[in-house]
From TrEMBL:
Transmembrane segments: none
A molecular function (GO) term: kinase activity
Protein name (Swiss-Prot/TrEMBL): Diacylglycerol kinase family lipid kinase
Keyword presence, ATP-binding: yes
Cited PANTHER family: LIPID KINASE YEGS, SPHINGOSINE KINASE
Length: 300
């Protein structure tokens, strides 16, 4: 049965982002209340991981679009819950970074983002897996994962906290020796940052892989082996300018599977949330495995 895009379930993470006075029911009533034939419900999350359960239940209950209201962590949980159901994921970007929403051309203004849902345009996107765990935007090992772990413990959220934590940890973090198998090559190197990009950016228009196409069945792998200060400055500029691949500060490979081994456990993140440590990491991609609502400007 084709999912009914006139039945929408909004899964709302109240701790995402920094705006605590957000009135979702009021916004939905103004934007969707008078749309004939459209039915919606709002389900707030009560704990980390809850959005995945709520999304799975919503799909089983016949909702045709399940909308993640939050940042990339909420998107990750809702996306996990919908995998294999054929139900589309929408996004109302209310997080700190909103990497997937930005990649998909979803407006950051809430009213405009909601209005996309009146007649949603749905396309399937690729889904990455790191040791079997899904990600939709980016995953990675090394410094990024370390910062995501410290960020979760920081007590406040938002870009300012993220930058403060990253600057503090830059002086402490050391690269780890690794072996990387990619496209039939074995790279013996060190890992300061090893990013797997399904989408082009981490969020906040920080472009780790500006050429990434989220529907091409391929991941863009970005390796930064060491991070002396001169390179850190170039990387920071390259993330903002979108020219990291041509900067000489990072090496890129386009692939659909990667294996990474290290003697020391390496932390990893999934869509910006710290998700564990491992000495053996396999990354793979499932082409066009999740239908999502995209914005008018999305052309991939
Ligand atoms: N009710 C809740 N209480 C505590 N944590 C929650 C709750 N609901 C969801 N979470 C957790 O909140 C975390 C952060 O959410 P999310 O990533 O959406 O926001 P953000 O970090 O502000 O945005 P972004 O990832 O775009 O920077 C997620 O990892 C999720 O598991």
């Amino acid at each position: 049965m084709t999912p009914d895009c006139r039945r929408l379930c909004f899964i709302f993470n109240p701790i995402s982002g920094t705006n605590r006075r957000f009135d979702l029911p009021g916004l939905l009533s103004r934007q969707l209340g008078n749309t004939p034939g459209l039915y919606y419900e709002v389900q707030p999350t009560h704990y980390a991981g809850h959005a995945e359960e709520l999304a799975r239940t919503a799909a089983a209950n016949g909702f045709g679009v399940v909308v993640a209201v939050g940042g990339d962590g909420t998107v990750n949980e809702v996306g996990r819950g919908l995998l294999g159901t054929g139900v589309a994921m929408g996004v109302l970007p209310r997080g700190s970074g909103n990497g997937l929403a930005r990649h998909l051309g979803i407006p950051l203004g809430m009213a405009a983002a909601v209005s996309l849902l009146r007649q949603p345009r749905v396309l399937p996107i690729d889904v990455g897996r790191l040791n079997g765990k899904p990600f939709f935007c980016t995953a990675g090992l090394g410094f990024d994962a370390h910062v995501s772990r410290c960020f979760a413990a920081a007590g406040t959220r938002g870009l300012a906290t993220y930058v403060r934590v990253a600057l503090r940890e830059y002086g402490r973090y050391r690269a780890t020796p690794v072996q990387i198998e990619v496209n039939g090559q074995l790279l013996r190197t060190t890992c300061y940052v090893l990013a797997f990009a399904n989408a082009a950016q981490y969020g906040n228009n920080a472009y780790i892989a500006p050429l990434a196409n989220i529907r091409d069945g391929l991941l863009d792998m970005c390796l930064i082996d060491e991070m002396p200060l001169s390179r850190a400055l170039r990387v920071a500029y390259g993330l903002a300018a979108g020219d990291l691949p041509t900067s000489g500060a990072a090496a890129y490979h386009t692939t659909h599977t990667v294996r990474v081994r290290s003697e020391q456990p390496l932390g990893f993140h999934l869509d910006g949330d710290f998700a564990g440590e491992a000495t053996d990491v396999s990354v793979a991609l499932e082409p066009q495995a999740l239908p999502v609502v995209v914005g008018h400007s999305f052309t991939q």
